[in-house]
Amino acid sequence: MDWSLFLPGPQGWGDELLAGLWLTIRLGLTAVALGTALGLASALAELSRFTVLARLVAAYNLVMRSVPELLVIFLLYYGLSFLIMGALAPFGIDGFVEVSPFWAGTLALSLIHAAYASEVFRGAFQVIPKGQIEAAQAFGMGRFLTFRRIKWPVAFRLSIAGLANLLMATLKNTPLVSAIGLQDLVRVAGEAGQNTKLYFQFFMISLSIYLVIAALMMILQTKAESRLFAHLRRGPAT
Question: CATH number for the domain including 124?
Fold first, then answer.
């Protein structure tokens, strides 16, 4: 076997694999950042006093969790093009408008991530001891100050494990964007296998990379949880 096929260079696929890995990381982290923010806003909307808004958001999240991720990617990619062409048609601008596959894929993965992150945040907010909130109100804290000093810190600690799992789930969903033309790590590995007939070897490289990413995420999660819950391991003050 020619090992130079796995290395960067004019005859190797190392450059393409690194480019695919970089796209996977950029796509996944951008989708997670945006999706987590949307998930938090969605959870707050579901827990708000505005019943109609809460029900609409809850129904939307249910729909997003019920449909295949690939279908969401297709609908956004082609749907956004359709909407833009419809908006430009009254101005006499015809022709197909192509949406950026990267941002269409990012938006789709963000919305999917947000639907699940909303449930994580909502569950965390609901288990905050009411005594802590009542104590904050007794000290004269307003709604925003109570959220910033009491609700959000506690909810974030309780959400960290669930959010870490969602991060890995979103990263594992990134190969779906290859359906709209993006050259992610798995697609590049497939093309390399097609050209060299070394399918198993290149997909094993992809597997190894994903396992390394998962291991790094577990280390970061463990350290974050250790730091966030350090106060629970301390002995009573003397």
Answer: 1.10.3720.10
